[in-house]
Design a protein that fits this description.
6-stranded mixed beta sheet, Non-ribosomal Peptide Synthetase Peptidyl Carrier Protein, Chain A, Cathepsin D, subunit A, domain 1, flat, 11% strand, 12 strands
Length: 501
């Protein structure tokens, strides 16, 4: 034993280890020690431990294990520890595998490779692994990217999935930096002012500055008319604006009347649900810039040259001035860019063209992204890092920006209700005490006594019950005579009716 090279531990039967891997390691141990076949069985029984030897004796009883060859011992133990499983059952386990939340992409790839070992896929193995990776990965964004890729192989899918996961992790790191920056610089008074304002974003589309989350109840401020109601039922969707003559909004919320604060690509009349969420999410970042004079800058490598960019979530594309482009990349040739761009005041920008560049977040980053850069013949202090790049470089940027500011107005309302709970208690009725009210009439005023309105029979009983409750609570008092009289009007509600004079 002293002359043996290396060592191998005893097989732990209680922990249900991989016996197949253990036997492969044992064979390699015999190989490097040049063990003779006649001594391999004795060496295995000595090294494998008492648990394995006891199991072996029970498996081949009444025969003596010491008289068996290593090959016979191996076959007997493999049948016991690693019985042959059904190919259908193994493939069932393979196809139902999905990525767990705690698993990274690399760990999930390793897991499906292990499951595929016993599935006997043969020449179909690469395709099976590719399909399982695409179907089983938890990130919907990664899944969409993989599905859009042509001639996708398993190796290429692994590289893309790992690269996207790395970009998402870097975006989370940026998210923490953004939140910390905003927390340090935005004052309480600034948040209060931001929480109660609306400002138009894009062509004819107002955006919400206080609500950081997309509207779910449909009762927020309507982007078609500016009122608080369900915008899906707003009649202004079919109206034409008097300011810009475009259909879908009124002049109250028109971008042309109020001005814009971003560079926007010319958009169609109808916008998708995703576009609407983008407008809601981007406004918070613009408000942070408006209440604080400092801008959010990010340096990255463009064609291996450092470029300082201003993060502008209001810009649909990434824009660089021609002066800076000619200085940094004099040898690059521009391609045609047909889409129109508009500036902060709504004027059309002079677009010279676009170029595809290689982008890296830092010199240490191994991931390289090929992205379009728009060149304009206008003055621009910084290159604007628009949404087209943010969606690729920082896929989670919308969530990190949308969650910066809480809905401050709702917090103040709740605090106000708590401080004056007796006033807002709907189940409690109170009266103004020690106050005498005097009604001033015109000199020639004549008393008017109106006859009561007829009430539909279907609601007559409910109205009588309401009047009875008002009498019992003291809101109304009975009187035998009055020179003045006005009929009540029953206003129907979802919960119950309301009597109004």
């Amino acid at each position: 034993m002293a002359n043996l090279v290396g060592s191998i531990e005893q097989f732990d039967e209680k922990n249900k280890g991989d016996f197949v891997s253990y036997m492969e390691r044992m064979e390699q141990f015999f190989l490097i020690n040049d063990s003779l076949s006649t001594k391999q069985s004795a060496l295995f029984i000595t090294l494998a431990g008492p648990q394995v030897y006891s199991t072996l004796k029970n498996l081949i009883a009444p025969e003596d294990p010491t008289k068996k060859s290593f090959k016979e011992i191996k076959e007997a133990l493999l049948k016991h520890y690693a019985p042959t499983k059904s190919e259908t059952a193994e493939r069932f386990e393979f196809y139902k595998a999905t990525q767990n939340p705690e698993q990274s992409v690399s760990q999930f790839i390793m897991h499906i490779r292990k499951l595929a070992n016993s599935c006997n896929f043969g020449s179909f193995l690469d395709q099976a692994l590719r399909d399982k990776l695409v179907c089983g990965i938890s990130s919907e964004q990664t899944q969409r990217r993989l599905l859009c890729e042509k001639d996708l192989t398993f190796s290429k899918a692994c590289q893309m999935a790992i690269a996207i996961e790395s970009a998402e992790n870097q975006a989370k790191a940026l998210k923490g930096g953004l939140v910390e920056k905003v927390t340090d610089h935005v004052s309480e008074s600034s948040r209060r002012s931001v929480s109660s304002q609306w400002r138009p974003k894009g062509r004819g589309q107002p955006s919400m500055s206080s609500t950081s989350q997309p509207r779910q109840s449909g009762r927020g401020k309507c982007r078609h008319c500016g009122r608080f109601h369900d915008e899906s039922r707003c009649r202004a969707r079919d109206w034409k604006c008097f300011t810009c003559n475009r259909q879908g909004h009124t002049s109250v919320v028109c971008w042309k009347k109020n001005g814009v604060k971003c560079v926007n690509e010319e958009e169609q009349e109808t916008s998708t649900e995703e576009d609407e969420i983008n407008k809601i999410s981007t406004l918070v970042c613009n408000n942070v810039k408006s209440v604080n004079s400092s801008v959010l800058l990010k340096e990255m490598l463009v064609n291996d040259k450092p470029v300082l960019m201003e993060v502008d979530t209001g810009a649909s594309v990434t824009v660089m001035s021609s002066e800076k482009f000619n200085k940094l990349f004099p040898l690059l040739t521009l391609a045609e860019h047909k889409a129109k761009l508009r500036g902060v005041s709504g004027q059309e920008l002079n677009v010279l063209g676009q170029v595809i560049v290689d982008v890296k977040l830092s010199s240490q980053d191994k991931n390289v992204f090929r992205l379009p850069l728009i060149i304009i013949d206008n003055e621009c202090r910084y290159t604007l890092l628009g949404r087209s790049w943010l969606d690729i470089l920082y896929p989670d940027w919308k969530n990190c920006i949308a969650n910066i500011n809480p809905n401050v107005s709702e917090l103040y309302v709740e605090r106000f209700k708590k401080d004056f709970n007796t006033v807002f208690d709907v189940d409690r009725l109170s009266f103004i005490k020690d106050v005498r009210v005097k009604l001033v009439l015109k000199e020639n005023a004549v008393p008017i006594f109106h006859a009561p309105y007829r009430i539909p029979y279907s609601i007559k009983e409910a109205v009588e019950m309401e009047l009875k409750e008002m009498l019992e609570s003291g809101v109304l008092e009975k009187t035998k005579y009055s020179e003045w009289a006005s009929p009540i009007v029953v206003v129907p509600r979802k919960s119950k009716g309301r009597n109004a004079v």
